[in-house]
Amino acid sequence: MEKVEELAEALKAVEDELNLAKRVYLAFPFIFWGAVLPMLYLLSNVLSWTSEWFQGSFGGNGGMILSTLAIIWFFTEEKRIFKKIEALERILGVPSRKSRRYMLSQIASWFLAGMLAFVFSLSTPTQYEFKTAEFMLLFVGLGVGFIVLSTLFFLRRIEWPQVLASLIDLSALYLLNHLNGTMNPQTFSVMVVSASFTFTAFLYIRRAMRE
Amino acid sequence: MKAERLRELADSPLGNPTRLAIALYLLSRERTTFIELAKALKLTPGNLDFHLKALEKAGMVKTYYGFGKRPRKFVELSEKGTEELERAMRILREVIRGD
Question: CA A1, CA B48: separation in Å to the nearest integer?
Fold first, then answer.
């Protein structure tokens, strides 16, 4: 009997460790974009200012090409992380959150967010920098918001850190209209998205450490 | 019933507690080095090598060399290793719960 109790304690300790690892892996997308987004913005600007080759070779689309490379990098990393989370959930004996419909709904969330953000920002009769900034805040804010809804629908769970990220990004749209030239709108939107993602990752990891 | 299930686990490649610990350590990581693994589990290189060879033979871990300042041996859990670990953990839970 004592042996079984010891075994139960050991198993509980192992499960706690695995749960911690799983939470850290779940925070990965937020850590990634929280760090990569400002770096990407900075790099693309620095290269535009300093390198005629960068401007000339890509016909002004250098930033877009760098973003595409970052997205490819993200998906390569995310694929491995995905498998890890799936394995951890299998070992922990919890039903996998990676059902086909759930995954499709996540992809659809970003697609829908992109479409809506495009339509909204297109209707704004203003300069390019403002439109790009508006698009980014709308796209990320709506995308994360839709992801929250899909998680709620499929897993019956509210991811509060994600709700917060969505609210920060969407509410920053108001501030974007009141910058009054104090800051470049694109810089502002990159900072807001990066801050909201980093904060979300912080909340995930802090929760994992406490529980 | 419990005894039967435990015997089933003991007969599997993860029946040995050290091998079970190795698999669990590898599960939460993408990969680790031989030296890190030995340090974390407080095993001598010879002892770890012995268990890793057994796990590798059973197709449960993959080892390969990477090069930095000096060659390093990397270890990672295979898909078969994950499946075996899932089975082992299920058996342990059943024994504890008394299913």
Answer: 31
